[in-house]
């Protein structure tokens, strides 16, 4: 009688462990950070956070509008230096405790001489506060979607 009880407990424990054991070692998808939008979030860009950065370009890729949300949560104004492949350089000043949405509540940055077709990406650096930033690939989009059409230069 005791052996049957022990055997049934062992089988029950084996069933429970085999059906739930994968959750103990598999990564949880909800803990993986990603940009749930068209653009990219730039890690380690300094005190200014760069969110949902992308470029909306003309069909030939000669011009594009840089779109992004720039967040300064510090108590002083900050300068964001943007360097894109091809020698393109821009600077944006963000006041303290301010979010600037280029392309929404502020004019996007017009990039002449982009030389990147929609559907590709352009490499870039984003730096503020004297800290370096990793090289990131900024996606280049077109105005095919209704909400992106007004952003085409």
Overview of the molecule:
There is one protein chain. This protein is of the alpha+beta class and 153 residues long. The protein folds into two domains: 2-31, no CATH class; 40-151, Immunoglobulin-like. The protein is 15% helix and 39% strand. Strands 1, 2, 3, 4, 5, 6, 7, 8 and 9 form a nine-stranded mixed sheet that branches. A hairpin with a 5-residue loop joins strand 1 (40-42) and strand 2. The protein is elongated. The model has no long low-confidence stretch (mean pLDDT 87).
Helix and strand arrangement:
Elements: H1 2-20, H2 22-25, E1 40-42, E2 48-57, E3 63-72, E4 78-84, E5 88-94, E6 98-102, E7 109-112, E8 121-128, E9 136-141
Parallel strand pairs: 2-9
Antiparallel strand pairs: 1-2, 2-3, 3-6, 3-7, 4-5, 4-8, 8-9
Short description:
The chain has 153 residues and is α+β, with helices and mostly antiparallel strands.
- What's the pLDDT, averaged over the residues? 87
CATH architecture of the largest domain: Sandwich
Strand content: 35-45%
Helix content: 10-25%
Distance between the termini: 82 Å
Oligomer: single chain
User: What coarse outline follows from CA principal-axis ratios?
Assistant: elongated
Largest sheet: 9 strands, mixed
Radius of gyration (CA) equals 24 Å
The CATH class label of the largest domain is: Mainly Beta
How many structural domains can be distinguished in the coordinates?
2
Please give the count of helices.
2
Number of strands: 9
What's the CATH topology label of the largest domain?
Immunoglobulin-like
Q: What is the string of SSEs from the N terminus onward?
A: HHEEEEEEEEE
Spans of at least 5 consecutive residues whose pLDDT stays below 50 are none
């Amino acid at each position: 009688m005791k052996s049957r009880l022990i055997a049934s407990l062992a089988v029950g424990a084996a069933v429970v462990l085999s059906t739930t054991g994968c959750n103990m070692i598999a990564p949880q998808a909800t803990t993986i950070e990603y940009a749930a939008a068209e653009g990219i979030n730039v890690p380690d860009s300094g005190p200014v956070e760069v969110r949902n950065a992308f470029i909306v370009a003309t069909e030939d890729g000669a011009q594009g509008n840089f779109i992004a949300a720039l967040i300064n949560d510090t108590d002083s104004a900050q300068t964001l230096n943007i360097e894109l492949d091809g020698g393109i350089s821009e600077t944006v000043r963000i006041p303290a405790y301010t979010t600037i949405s280029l392309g929404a509540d502020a004019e996007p940055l017009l990039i002449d001489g982009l030389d990147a077709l929609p559907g590709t990406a352009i490499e870039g650096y984003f730096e503020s506060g004297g800290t370096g930033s990793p090289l990131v690939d900024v996606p280049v989009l077109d105005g095919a979607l209704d909400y992106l059409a007004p952003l085409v230069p």
